[in-house]
Amino acid sequence: MDPVTSGILIVVALFVLMAIGTPIAFALGGVSLTALVLNQGMSELTYFGETFFGSLASFGFVAIPMFILMGAAVASSPTGRDLYRSLDLWLGKVPGGLAIANIGACSIFAALSGSSPATSAAIGKLGIPEMRKRGYPDGVAAGCIAAGGTLGILIPPSVTMIVYGISTETSIGRLFIAGAMPGLMLALLFMAWTLIACKMAGGYDTPSPVAAAANQIKENVESNMKALVRVLPFLVVVTGILFALYGGVATPSEAAGAGAFLCLALAILVYRMWQVKPLKVVFRDALRESVMIMLIIACAEIFAYALSSLFITQTVAGAIADLEVNRWVLMGVINVFLLVAGFFLPPVAVIVMTAPILLPIILAANFDPYWFAVVLTINLEIGLITPPVGLNLFIIRGIAPDIALRDLLLGSLPYALCMVLGIVLLCIFPGIATWLPDLIMN
């Protein structure tokens, strides 16, 4: 069977398994194993095991469960509540300010947790009911949280950037810096659209009854300032981690381990999480997400090995490289491919399967690999708020099941278009992603 036909059958089989509810890791591993055995015999079982365990035998992967534990410690504590209350203090009285405060809270919480689902859940539980109570349209309330949550895989520290760095053998510290300015740009684009959407809706906040009395306002300010003080130590930890990475003081794994320990200690000391039950939840959530990601990485490596063994990867890469087109047309084709892949697959799986294949093509076309990492990540962010998978949409749906699905989808669509605009701006002004890494790391 020729490589093109084999590739089509493998992709179809993969989508069929996912459509019937098979976990992504098992779908990748099952399709890969079946394809290898059918084409090359039972001897491939030996290479299957070696590839599975060998793909995880990298010290760099230690950073992943550590950053996830750090995020779980933040997400399981009242940090999100305090962050939300603090930003509401400063922005809640500005027209459309509560929605902007939610996006700002998502941006900061994304830096603390590094997880898009955790960001959407932590801020959404507080922000969506409050915005609806103050008269915000359902689409704006749900859409801004879903979109703000996607920043978790772009703003450093980011687990997906770690996976990209290990898969492509590029500097993780430089990747983190490259994601900072584009993350801020997307947050500003989200805020700009939120203001426009609020004005189009004809109004924003319905004044809170609590704000009517002066003494209650004073108590509210004092309470929110105390909340801000509780959040500051976590922000200091994240800043210290990034400084250690950028300054060459520690490796990503060492920085992640220190960050996990410090955030866990702060959660215990600041929020008095002494009991076994809350700590059990933290470790349970961290273990569950870590195992899921590591399984996806291992099975995606097997999938990539199967495609390479059947000469599918080489055929596709050769066909793309042989396209006699302008390099920006080539980049457009790659973006469409990544966008479609992000609709169906989680970001980690897409990165592990495609980044090693696409990187040589990107370099041959004279594109910066760190700039491309940001473009790739934004494409995958779009997949988090678009059907059919749309992980953040499922989280928002669980938080506010009474919001009509139509309102949720229409509310998220403009933010997806903001991300497309962000990719266009990165193509026109690549320095948005490359200027800061060049400045800091020469």
From TrEMBL:
Family: Belongs to the TRAP transporter large permease family.
Name recorded for this polypeptide: TRAP transporter large permease protein
TRAP C4-dicarboxylate transport system permease DctM subunit domain: residues covered: 11-432
Domain of life: Bacteria
Membrane topology per record: Multi-pass membrane protein
Keywords assigned: Cell inner membrane, Cell membrane, Membrane, Transmembrane, Transmembrane helix, Transport
Compartments (UniProt record): Cell inner membrane
Record's signal peptide: none
TM helices/strands, residue ranges: 6-39, 51-74, 94-114, 175-196, 227-249, 255-274, 286-308, 328-359, 371-400, 412-436
